[in-house]
Write a structure and sequence with these properties.
The protein is built from nine helices and 13 strands. It is of the alpha/beta class. Helix 2 packs across helix 3 and helix 7 packs across helix 8.
């Protein structure tokens, strides 16, 4: 019997894990620092499980909870988003410095360099991410935020939700966009088809495009299509062609590289 169609983002990751657990699923570059991190489906799933266990065990995150995510496009952001959705909770994707935008959040996860304005708000729980390539903690920080990297390590690589996620529950709030968990999976499948994503594609997407397009486009649609990702922060235009060749990129999102098809554009 064929596997059932994914009904939420966690199901999309589970399908990727079944397809090929050891192949690269997310490869992340930062041209400002020279970093390169590669995660297989198994490694990403482990990070997702640890994140979900941390959120569930330490903050009681589950169906009905809202987790604000103030993070750049990054491999750890992928793990955080999928961890929240694995708990059955909603992601509030927002400009975190805007006063009043976080009033509905039960937990806020933010990059280290975005913590200062958040510390001035009356937030219930705040966690900071160093975004270190090896997952190490924040250095030189003495504020009230808890350190995600230090706390997530102690949590298990397998996640079992206390309550099963309901596809009809809220899944994403981003500006005026409101999607349920089920609608996220459906939107990812629909967008994958509209963009022309195909199983086995290796998709290069830069930080600017990903931030503008949102997580359905840069994360969930490739998962739904059976594609893998090459994420590039602070991209160096002169390095893109060589990188695309080295990573065997077959398609780009929002980036033009001669000879490689650009998703969403006629051939």
């Amino acid at each position: 019997m064929p596997p059932t169609r994914p009904t939420d983002p966690a199901g999309l990751l589970a399908a990727a894990l079944r397809r090929d657990p050891s192949a690269p699923l997310v490869t992340a570059y930062d041209d400002a620092t020279g970093e390169r991190v590669e995660l297989s489906a198994t490694t990403l799933a482990n990070w997702v499980a640890k994140t979900a266990n941390l959120l569930q065990d330490e903050f009681d995150v589950g169906p009905g909870s809202t987790v604000a995510v103030a993070l750049p496009v990054h491999w750890q952001t992928a793990a955080v988003l999928l961890g929240v959705w694995s708990c059955g909770a909603a992601v509030l994707d927002t400009a975190a410095e805007d006063d009043g935008r976080l009033d509905a959040a039960d937990v806020v996860l933010a990059a280290h360099d975005r913590l200062a304005p958040l510390e001035e708000q009356d937030l219930p729980d705040l966690m900071g991410l160093s975004l270190h390539p090896l997952g190490m903690g924040m250095t030189g920080y003495a504020g009230p935020a808890r350190d995600f990297a230090l706390e997530v390590r102690g949590h298990g690589d397998v996640f079992t939700p206390y309550q099963q996620p309901d596809p009809a529950s809220p899944g994403l709030s981003a500006g005026g966009l409101q999607l349920t968990l089920g609608a996220l999976a459906g939107a990812a499948e629909e967008l994958a088809g509209r963009l022309g994503l195909a199983a086995g594609d290796r998709v290069l997407v830069d930080e600017r495009t990903a931030e503008e397009a949102g997580p359905v486009a840069w994360l969930l649609a490739p998962l739904a299509a059976g594609a893998s990702l090459v994420l590039v922060r602070h991209p160096d235009p002169a390095a893109l062609r060589g990188r695309a060749e080295a990573e065997r990129v077959t398609a780009t999102l929002g980036v033009r590289i001669e000879g490689i098809r650009e998703l969403g554009r006629p051939a």
